[in-house]
Every structure is written in structure tokens, then in C-alpha cells.
Specification:
Elements: H1 2-20, H2 25-38, H3 44-62, H4 71-91, H5 99-108, H6 112-115
Helix pairs in contact: 1-2, 1-3, 2-5, 3-4, 3-5
């Protein structure tokens, strides 16, 4: 099982990097929702980890020049927003929460990630 979980995390990180570096504002805005739809059974915090790891990898790859790239603060901001939603879910008793729970939360409580197209 751990091998499958690690493979999913790696795929999520790769997907997040591709979307953040796509140059398409639409793809960047829809990234988190698409990740939750693509990996609904993964832990909700895995999305946070994947987006944070992807952002850090991009930042490391571009070195000092990364500070000027708007993708870096965007990635970290998205990670923080997902974290807040996971915290809200867990505060409502949804422990452990999975990505599918985030989709439900967004439909019922906070549609931010559903509106980002």
C-alpha cells in the first residue's frame, strides 16, 4: 500500500508543478479543484503537501530569480487556503478527511476553489 501512496503523492506533485508552470492562468486557478477530483480518496493534507512540495521544487530550480516569479507566492497561498479548509473539515469532525471531503465542503460551505476556473 505504501508504494501506491508514494506514487500518488509523486503524481500529485508532478501535476501541481505542471499546472503552476503552465503559463495558463486558467490551469493555475483550477489546479486544486482538479487535484481533488483526480485523487478523491487521498488524504486532504496530501493536496497541501503536493502543492507545497511543487512550489518548493520550482523555487529551488530557479534559485534567486524565483523570488520575482508570481507562481511562488501563488503556490504557497493555495497551500495555505487548502490547509484552512482541511482544518475547518476536521473541526467539524471529518477526521481523517480526504480530497473528496474537500469537494463536498467547497460545494456546501466555501465555493472558492469551485469558482476558480
Amino acid at each position: 500500500m505504501a508504494v501506491d501512496r508514494d506514487a500518488s503523492i509523486d503524481q500529485m506533485i508532478e501535476f501541481a508543478m505542471e499546472e503552476l508552470l503552465s503559463g495558463s492562468n486558467q490551469r493555475k486557478r483550477a489546479m486544486v479543484r482538479r487535484m481533488a477530483e483526480r485523487w478523491p480518496g487521498e488524504p486532504a493534507l496530501a493536496l497541501v503537501y503536493a502543492v507545497t512540495s511543487a512550489t518548493e521544487a520550482i523555487e529551488d530550480s530557479f534559485g534567486p530569480g524565483a523570488a520575482d516569479d508570481p507562481v511562488i507566492p501563488l503556490g504557497y497561498r493555495l497551500s495555505a487556503l487548502i490547509s484552512a479548509d482541511v482544518h475547518a473539515l476536521q473541526s467539524m469532525g471529518q477526521i481523517p478527511s480526504v480530497a473528496e471531503d474537500l469537494l463536498h465542503f467547497w460545494r456546501r460551505v466555501d465555493p472558492l476553489f469551485l469558482r476558480l476556473q
